[in-house]
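HUMAN: Would you supply a protein with fold tokens?

ASSISTANT:
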Amino acid sequence: MARQRAVADLRNVLDRIDKRFIGRGDKQKKLMRSLGLETVDIIVERTREGFGVKRVGGNRRKLKPLSKRYIEFRRRNRDKLGKAGRITKSNLTFTGQMLDSVKILKSTPGGFEVGPSGSRSDRKRNADVARWVTEQGRPFMNLGRKEIGSLVRYLREEFNQRARRI
């Protein structure tokens, strides 16, 4: 009898831990959504600062510089320059539309997918523009080693807050 009670108590504790840390259904989706939003913020902020990451887990590095010809184009079209855009700085923000469109594309209890979405004022798809700039040597949608560490710290803090509520 005591053994059954101990097993039942242990199941109860494990159930509570599972519900707090992992969550089920909406709680788990909410956690993935908040992690996805944090990921979007990291990618957009880093890119606006002029840095990209070549491969997942790599180091961030400056984006490939703009060509003199493109700098001249930007200078002639400065009225179209986005709020974070600079004429000579490579930070993928000529109009700002592509980076502004980066969001959570899909969120499930087990994960999420982020990327550019929708179309621009010039009718190009933001995903196509992102693919093109990546092919041109300005990869930006990967998470670097330090950024992954930052997301791990974010999750750790979230779990610590949940643990205090047990």
Notes: The first helix runs from residue 2 to 22.
